[in-house]
Write a structure and sequence with these properties.
Blueprint: E1 3-8, H1 13-23, E2 30-36, H2 42-49, E3 54-56, H3 60-64, H4 69-81, E4 87-90, H5 99-102, E5 109-113, H6 125-134, E6 140-147, E7 157-164, H7 171-194
Parallel strand pairs: 1-2, 1-4, 2-3, 4-5
Antiparallel strand pairs: 5-6, 6-7
The structure holds 5-O-phosphono-beta-D-ribofuranosylamine.
Length: 201
């Protein structure tokens, strides 16, 4: 059974989508570990409720000791390598990983980003897309799963889906539509990667 490590920093609704897909037999994989860099991440509770091992691994102790992000990334990779993951899924993981981490898992780290390739990279992509819509600049955004490279939210796209915006949308309406799309493509992308059948775009 392929082994997944899922990395989170927050609410964990995408982690929950993966947990549900595994439990419902839609995804033939095992979540070997859930990692969070934030203690308060509700996703840690979701993992514990599902009986999945968790690892809380904060950056702050490294910064307090004057150690580099690369030192953190390398140690984090070491802790994850122990569970021998076939695929590492960044699901709302809010820390840019350096080659000190990525080089340990070449071609095996994928990321969910709530925007289309080349648009709204970085944080707050959903609200930034909504503001652009309000300015009349776009009528759709989207989300994508991509392979992780050192450049943020770049890397080969595995799956992407458009998410429309409508005139009477509030931000909450749009966010709900976006998260529903995310929960779908994150499971699809994991399945494709594990079957090693990436859809060429
Ligand atoms: C998602 O929109 C994800 O794309 C972004 O943060 C949100 C995480 O949601 N990076 P959750 O923690 O999976 O609920």
């Amino acid at each position: 059974m392929p082994r997944l490590v899922v990395m989170i920093s927050g609410f964990g609704s995408n982690l929950q989508a993966i947990i549900d897909a595994v439990n419902e037999g839609q995804l033939s994989a095992e979540i070997a570990l859930v990692v969070s860099n934030r203690k308060a991440a509700y996703g840690l509770e979701r993992a514990q409720l599902a009986g999945i091992p968790t690892l809380y691994f904060p950056l702050k102790p490294y910064k307090d000791q004057g150690l580099s992000r690369e030192a953190y990334d390398a140690d984090l990779a070491g802790r994850i390598a122990v569970v021998q993951p076939d695929l590492i899924v960044l699901a709302g993981w809010m820390h840019v990983l350096s080659p000190a981490f990525l080089d340990c898992f070449p071609g095996r780290v994928i990321n969910l980003h709530p925007a289309l390739p080349g648009e709204f990279e970085g944080v707050d992509a959903i609200s930034r897309a909504y503001e652009a819509f309000r300015r009349g600049e776009i009528t759709r955004s989207g989300c994508m799963m991509h392979y992780v490279v050192p450049t943020i939210d770049a890397g080969e796209v595995i799956l992407q889906v458009e998410v429309p915006l409508y005139p009477d949308d509030t931000l909450e309406h749009f966010e709900g539509r976006m998260h529903a799309a995310e929960h779908h493509i994150i499971v699809q992308a994991i399945r494709l990667c594990l079957e090693n059948e990436r859809i060429p775009l």
